[in-house]
Amino acid sequence: MPDPDRAAPRLTLVLGGARSGKSRYAEGLIEALPGPWLYVATAQAWDDEMRARIDAHRARRPPPWETVDAPRDLPAMIGRAPAGRPVLVDCLTLWLTNAMLDDDADLAAEVEALVGSCRAAAGPLVLVSNEVGFGIVPENALARRFRDEAGRLHQCLAAIADRVVLVVAGLPMTLKGDT
To answer: The whole model's pTM is what?
Structure first.
């Protein structure tokens, strides 16, 4: 249970694999703070399965959660968040996928803008992302590039984060900062 007398970290990065419990853990971090809470969703519903996943996530977040969609312009959305309002971004790897699939995107500039907006955020800000670097080397060039870009993004954000947590099998392991 979080200590109510201790200030929440300004920036927390929560990493984990698919179905690791990272989103639920991140939601719990935000819900331990006074609401209302802002959920910044990066997913796009390209098919029925993804629509069902999005619906299930939304059903878990009744008021005082407010959900806004930012599949591409995540840095601006973070910058527009009201000062002091707890913000959860879920998830960075979906945002990265959206950016990589945009032929007009300057990925390095977009990552730099994201890191800058996170650095400037009034906080508390909790970022959720998939750790994809534990598996085998992907077979195709796009998948290898995605794995590498995600790893670089995570390193940049971990460097500026006050707390970094890895969630495995529903168990959070603090890698940096306080629990």
So the answer is: 0.91
Is 154 a residue of the active site?
no
Q: Which two tokens stand for residue 131?
A: 């750790």
Q: Which of 31, 32, 54, 57 is catalytic?
A: 57
Residue ranges of the binding site? 16-23, 41-43, 58-61, 90
- Domain housing 144: 11-176
Do the domain assignments include residue 4? no
- Is residue 105 included in any domain, yes or no? yes
H-run or E-run covering 41: strand 37-41
**What CATH number corresponds to the domain at position 90?**
3.40.50.300
Q: How far apart are the first and last CA of the chain?
A: 9
Number of domains in the chain: 1
SS3 content of the chain, % helix, strand, coil (to 5): 40, 20, 40
Residue 2 lies in a domain: no
pLDDT tens digits, 28-84:
999 999 999 999 999 877 788 877 877 777 777 777 899 999 999 999 999 999 988
